[in-house]
Amino acid sequence: MPHEPPREETEVKRVKRRTVVMGLTAAAAAPSVGFATGARAATSKGTASGTDASLVFDPSAYTELTIGITDTEGTAHSVTYHFHKVASYVANPVDVTYQGLNVSVPVSVDGTAVDATAAPILFANSVGGYMPSSVANATGIGGAGGPGGPGGPGGPGGGDSGPNRTQLSLLAGYVVVEPGARGRTLVDSSGVYYGVAPAAIVDLKAAVRYLRFNRGLIPGNVERIVSSGTSAGGALSALLGASGDSPLYEPYLKALGAADRSDAIFASGDWCPITDLEHADMSYEWCWADNPLADGTSVDQTIAADLKAEFTGYLAALHLTAPGFGRLTVRNLDDYLVRTHLEPSATRYLAALSDADRTTYLTANPFITWSGDRATFTWADFLTHVGARKKSAPSFDAFDLSTPECNEFGNGTTIARHFTRYGQEHDTSGSTATRLDSDIPEKLHSMNPMYHLVDKVNPHRSRHWWIRLGTKDSDTSLTIASNLAARLRDLGDDVDLKYYWDAGHGADNDPADFVTWIAQVSGHRL
């Protein structure tokens, strides 16, 4: 049964409504959409007290849109929703182009009224590559401008064609919030990089605080906020889930005039998260050191060996455990990945094929043994099957400072900096520094969910986690997601981790299952 909306909400006069019918591909037909009048961010001088009038959401400022969404079964639906634009979710924005958000509220599906008053809120960021992401020019749901564009890497659909999780969430009756966020390439007229770490996560936290501040004005249950993101956006989604209400970010949030509310979220959905950056190089070489580059050449094996050796100590320090394996170490990690994640992934894939297609696939991939409706293989054969690795060595903290992650840790007018001891010691950029800058450790803490799960275990973290990546995703190590999941399980959290067989970076092969999972963990009736 639909929930009865509060009386004060039912009596709001919708004086600013416009009604437009549009299709998924009919962007040109979409109207210009005005900002909510309560978000006067460009001129606000408010503080983080949470009482600034510029942070008050105006529920009457929306455009009514109708969109066609085809579900994963191929059935077409018509969804009418209210599309709200918030110019800025902070009182003192650095750049309103990136510090705004959009809210999409379903009101009917196939002509049947939908009451989203108490629905879960999907908080869908579109960050990719730690680049800036803007919703300022979006004229409907899914219009965020990330580096891959709508639906691209970091976009609302994680890069797959067909229905995506953002659209399917709206179809399910959830409220969809799409926040913008600053990114590493933003530079002002004086040459200062103002979107480097920790700007993106601070912005997302400020957006969550805005939602909580407007409890009862913004439809949806602010106690059931579920984040989602892909690639760097997946990393930020995981970080948002792990770091809720951490005091580490408070000075940044106060400077922005963020609402004085909690930034903790209920659940976190993370696709191929590019995270744990200070340990990403060593993790990458443990996983992919023996795989060739796309041109057939091998990376410098001295570098690979150095980094693999560092991974041994790092993994031991995590004290991760797994059922049937006990303590996870470099001696059993490959077997753990194969038995716990990779073979089940291959089994699901093969079981879903027709008998003829399965026979064809197994003939082409004889390293897999198919017996008793179960796939088995070795780690070495799996690596051969994956083939070329995507990145050189080091993959993240490049000696010449050329990688996006070095830019992410830039500072002031410095475009890029080293963030690992190994990268600094082997610098080829001409830097005269002999050690990492003193602020790097805190910046790393602010960008790594593992810090909030291992070093400083956060009691305000999310307790429900959805983690996905492809088995052929060599944008980072396959251990990044498995380590994150293992730690969360050790802490007693609810974790749903799956690898998509033969899929690459950005895959989202089960978006409908994610939407169902949200209902299950949140207690919401679909």
From TrEMBL:
Domain BD-FAE-like: 196-282
SUPFAM superfamilies in the record: alpha/beta-Hydrolases
Protein name: Acetyl esterase/lipase
Pfam families tied to this protein: BD-FAE
Biased composition (Gly residues): 141-161
Top-rank lineage group of the source organism: Bacteria
Residue segments, region Disordered: 141-163
